[in-house]
């Protein structure tokens, strides 16, 4: 692990997004909560939050951090769902990995809950969209870098 002992603790925030592409029928089933496993987006939200909290257990050289806030939200389109995860911390290291982990696990949970009706789903476009705090300052993905 990188030694962060001499770094100043600051407020840090990260936002990650990805998309899970699926058939319009699957979108309708998610929207109408018409799947046997239950409310897909509610379960995916909790899974993403849990993943953010356990990121250092999954990524070998990632520092454990005490998250002050994390959230997962969804935007439903005709052929995909956008998953967005936010993570915040007052710490000596950033929370980019926590946001990315939350986003990907939430998308995988959607896949798991919908795979009985749509095995052709694709998870893609996972990316960091914003990070603030720390010595490297603010980063925002340019709109043309992602959709």
Walkthrough of the structure:
- The chain is of the alpha+beta class and 147 residues long.
- It has a single domain (10-133), classed as 2-Layer Sandwich (Alpha-Beta Plaits), CATH 3.30.70.640.
- The chain contains 4 helices and 5 strands.
- A 5-stranded antiparallel beta sheet has the order 2-3-1-4-5, covered by helices on one side.
- Strand 2 (67-76) and strand 3 form a beta hairpin.
- Helix 2 packs antiparallel against helix 4 (96-114).
- It is elongated.
Tags for this model:
single chain; 147 residues; alpha+beta; Alpha-Beta Plaits; five-stranded antiparallel β-sheet; 4 helices; elongated
Short description:
This protein is of the alpha+beta class and 147 residues long.
Domain count: the total is 1
Overall 3D form: elongated
- CATH structural class: Alpha Beta
Reported CATH architecture? 2-Layer Sandwich
List segments where confidence is low: pLDDT < 50 over at least 5 consecutive residues. Answer: none
**Separate helix tally:** 4
Q: What is the tally of beta strands?
A: 5
Mean pLDDT: 94
Binned strand content: 25-35%
Order of helices and strands: EHHHEEHEE
Helix content: 25-40%
**Looking at this structure, what is the CATH superfamily?**
Molybdopterin cofactor biosynthesis C (MoaC) domain
CATH topology: Alpha-Beta Plaits
Radius of gyration: 16 Å
Q: How does the major sheet shape up?
A: 5 strands, antiparallel
Going by helix content, strand content and strand pairing, the class is alpha+beta
């Amino acid at each position: 692990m990188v030694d962060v002992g001499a770094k100043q603790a600051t407020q840090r925030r990260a936002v990650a997004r990805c998309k899970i592409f699926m058939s319009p029928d699957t979108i309708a089933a998610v929207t109408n909560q018409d799947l046997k496993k239950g409310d897909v987006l509610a379960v995916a939200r909790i899974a993403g939050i849990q993943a953010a909290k356990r990121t250092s257990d999954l990524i070998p050289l990632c520092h454990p951090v005490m998250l002050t806030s994390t959230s997962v939200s969804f935007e439903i389109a005709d052929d995909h769902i956008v998953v967005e995860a936010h993570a915040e911390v007052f710490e000596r290291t950033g929370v980019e990995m926590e946001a990315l982990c939350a986003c990907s696990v939430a998308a995988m949970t959607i896949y798991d809950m919908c795979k009985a009706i749509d095995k052709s789903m694709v998870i893609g476009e996972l990316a960091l969209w914003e990070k603030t705090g720390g010595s490297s300052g603010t980063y925002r993905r340019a709109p043309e870098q992602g959709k």
